[in-house]
What we know:
A: mainly beta, five-stranded mixed sheet, three-stranded antiparallel sheet, B: mainly alpha, three-stranded mixed sheet, 7% strand
Amino acid sequence: MTSALINVPAKAKRGDVIEIKTLMSHIMETGYRHTAAGEVVPRDIITSFACRFNGAEIFRADLFPAIAANPFITFFTTATESGKFEFEWVGDQGFSETASASITVE
Amino acid sequence: MRFSGAIAVALLIANAAFAAEIPQAERRSGYSFMKPDTRAMQDEDTANPGMLWVLDGEALWKRKLGAANKACADCHDDGRTSMKGVAARYPAFDHAAGRPVDLEQRINSCRSNHQQATPLPFESRELLALTAFVARQSQGAAIETGGDPQLAPFVAKGRELYTQRQGQLNLACANCHDDNWDKKLAGSAITQGHPTGYPLYRLEWQSLGSLQRRLRACMSGIRAQAYDYGAPELVELELYLMSRARGMAMEAPAVRP
């Protein structure tokens, strides 16, 4: 099943500021809700997101229960060289997803 | 909050002399009532969460299942070409049932008759995914629903339901969506109720949902007893709303607040 939507420009000029957009499929259950029977629905959220470029971490974010389902995270970076972005989402109940995208810098 | 809500409702009732239908030239998709942020979310495939369901649906399309061990693709080939414009014609008349069926019901009847698999529950992730995948292929196509003359009595029934007052608030769909669509209800735009983008991702739901889910939510909003999923009345309402939106462009999977 598809879990991530990634938007990274395929090409950029050296020194360009580029926008990176990511969307991860996740229910982001807060842990504050109860079932009709009164039982707590256990928390199930993504707790952290990280982006590495050619192995070096360039962006990291912590996520909390107030963040909506299917978190959409965007950020900017400067294109310095061609390479590969690696994205990683880690969360409750053993959740772990990765995705990657390549960019050519001229 | 509750007080202003009560005023809004009182205003609605005061204005409720039935106006005529919305003229063709003044019809507007729910999209045009949205803020630029939400529009941007719908416009870009990598920002539109509805695409998660579309891509799931594309995978399901190719999966063999049921006693017949057939995939959708075994009969319909590549859905990206064979399903072009199909959703723009639904709900459509089903000869076996002798009445209109919506896209979800059509997918489920295909499952039970041709794949010999169990039908998917309404609003299940799989059914929404397949519906979204099929509907996505009609993006930009003009809605054609209701052209079939056999549908005429059902469109009329749907219109009757649309204009019939119901619930504790004693409101008909038309009281808001024909007569007061240029106003607001508790800060939210009252739209014209054209179902151009279903199944769609509602930020309020944090999920994709069907037109039937939306109709049921409106019914609980006016404190009426909502029809069950798959009820003939809901399909007739869907049919009337789609034929009322004839000629407008399909947007599925849309995003709405």
